[in-house]
Amino acid sequence: MDEAVAEYIRSASKKTSFGAIDFFSSYGVRSKDRGSVSAAWVRGMNGTKNIALRKRIKAEWESSSRKRKTFWQELEQKERDDAYCRKLEVFVVEDKLKVGLHHSERIAKVLSSETQSSADSTSLDDSTSLDDSTTIAAATQIPSNSPSSSPATNPLTPSTGSSSSSSLSTPKISAKKSTPLEEPWQALQSFARQVALKRPVTIMEVQPGTMTPTRLGLFNHAYDSLVLFNEDGDDSILLKDAFVALSCTLNLSGPDVSSYFPKETLTAAEDAIPYLKDTGDVVKMMAPTLKIFIASGLNVDTLLKESIRSKGEIVKRRNTLSGKLNDIIEYLCELILSPEMQSGEAFSEAEVVETWKGLFKILLRNTKIYSKSGETVIITSKDVQVILNREFGDYSPYGRKADMLFKSRTEMCNFEFKAEGTSPTDMMTQNRKNIRLNRCILENLRKIGVSSPRILFADVKGFSGCVFSLQAFEDIYTSKCVDYMSIPQNATELKEFMENGELVLTLMAIADNLIETEQKANAALDMSAQAKTKRKLLDLYGSGEKSPPRRERRFSSSIYLSPNK
């Protein structure tokens, strides 16, 4: 859709007179499909540097508003319902642009602003299958011939064909259909998409065939969750649990899955996840400072001054553990004494992110690892959405946004944050999302050659969070909560922090895992560069024979992201 809008703007910039397009908003669940269109239009307009062109397009759009409204009001109710149920309406002014979008069971109809004659309009056949490729075409002139159509297919059966479009004067932008996921996962993935979009579905009758116990458990869990959500529609956690299972991941900290997996399998999966290491060095290093803090009657200001005084003594060792511990104590003292904390007002999500980010900056300051927050996009999730877009045609080409993404030469893990007061349902929904985002990162690490990658990520609510481990187990992946962490917010909690050192130990374990992952990833990337050079030489001097391409995507690399975002 972004490509279509960009093509429209390019076409408009070359002419003094041009047409405007309008995608009519639909009601009910169909309104979700229009969100991506509106967003694409806004992105395209905001990205246009030619101010004069933007004013012209806006004026053209506003001048045609009455005409668009009149056209829609003149339609019979049945015609509106028919359009909303199956089709995507496209309104074209002055025959200057055609934008056709093939996906799902909707079609695009080109309507002339002047007449309804067949010479001035083009219809797209409504038999496009659910799994057809997305084709976006743009032209400055609309031909009178109708485009060819693609045959209808069973929505629960993977489609191998692609839709065709009419011949236009401007080269079309086409997204080729990717190879489908191995069965029966492709059928289940297509079924999940229909359920998520709340479209009418027929309950699947698919024989899972021969599967390992782990994959059979994931299949049945995903299927049952989808059926229950389709019957009820209120419990969104059921839907997200199905998406996690479709991402080849067993969530050991999620719902009770004992009825889907043998007891010995769950026990082995639990035992395969190491808990975070413990050490007494941290507590010993903080003992002298803790003694001074207790003697002062838990006076945080006194502790802050002591930390600042000690900084001068260890300035040459600021990147050692003792130096970082001293800076963390100083950081926490300043946080507790800050007007924001003293006011008792709840911190916003952005403020919470910055607070946690400050701690990691101290722990990672002598490394090449850094964190990005705000509007940062997880690039590896973009790669996954490209695959899903090729299969279904209406996924955004832009990746999912991260709350706090750790990266170096490649992405290594993502933390998700919510403000205090967030409901348990929202926290569980966030966790299912975060598992899949980190699966995107884990899959990329595996692809570049990192052996047995393991990700430690966190879901944080305010100043407390849960740390999860995501790693391979047999022929699937597992996610499990392995530790909790909490930032002290007053003098009593600060004393407890210095007595047990648990927060620092947890943060150190995460930092150590990031450093280890970075080292493995850098080595893999260096080897990958050498391998690419070798492949180029082999292609140049080799026999020229190529292995046949793999016909299916494997479930082990499957990740399923929500279709309506």
Structure write-up:
By secondary structure, the protein is an alpha+beta fold. Among the domains are: 2-174, no CATH class; 185-271, no CATH class. The chain has helices spanning 2-13, 30-46, 51-63, 65-73, 77-86, 185-196, 213-232, 236-246, 263-271, 281-295, 300-313, 321-337, 339-343, 349-363, 379-392, 424-448, 491-500, 502-541, and strands at residues 21-22, 88-92, 100-101, 108-112, 122-123, 135-137, 173-174, 249-251, 370-373, 404-407, 411-418, 454-461, 464-473, 476-486. The protein has a 7-stranded mixed beta sheet with strand order 8-14-13-12-11-10-9, with helices on both faces. A 4-stranded mixed beta sheet has the order 1-2-4-5. Strand 11 (411-418), helix 16 (424-448) and strand 12 (454-461) form a beta-alpha-beta unit. Helix 6 packs antiparallel against helix 8 and helix 10 (281-295) runs antiparallel to helix 17 (491-500).
List keywords for this structure.
single chain; 565 residues; alpha+beta; seven-stranded mixed sheet; four-stranded mixed sheet; 18 helices; 14 strands
Offer a concise description of the structure.
With 565 residues, this protein is of the alpha+beta class. It is 47% helix and 12% strand.
